[in-house]
Design goal:
About 75% of the residues lie in helices and about 0% in strands. It is mainly alpha-helical.
Length: about 80
């Protein structure tokens, strides 16, 4: 219990130190090369997320739909009682 309190206290101290430091470098100039690289990285990350969602959702659904279609095609037709 004491180590947990000590850890939380240390975390709060470090968080206070980090957030209390003024970040003057945040006003730095971002040239066109660095900005384009950042935009390219962001677009690549979004494309990777979309592709992974597509793969994890669409392909199992496609397999499930194919199974349902095969089950419907191989299901025996019920006899029509009026046609006997």
């Amino acid at each position: 219990m004491i180590t947990r309190i000590r850890t939380l206290l240390l975390f709060a101290l470090m968080l206070g130190l980090v957030t209390g430091i003024p970040f003057e470098s945040a006003y730095a100039y971002g040239g066109p090369g660095s900005v384009l690289s950042g935009i390219g990285t962001l677009l690549a990350a979004l494309a990777a997320i979309i592709a992974s969602l597509f793969g994890f959702i669409w392909f199992p659904l496609k397999r499930l739909l194919r199974k349902f279609r095969e089950d419907e095609a191989t299901a025996p037709a019920e006899a029509d009682p009026a046609g006997e």
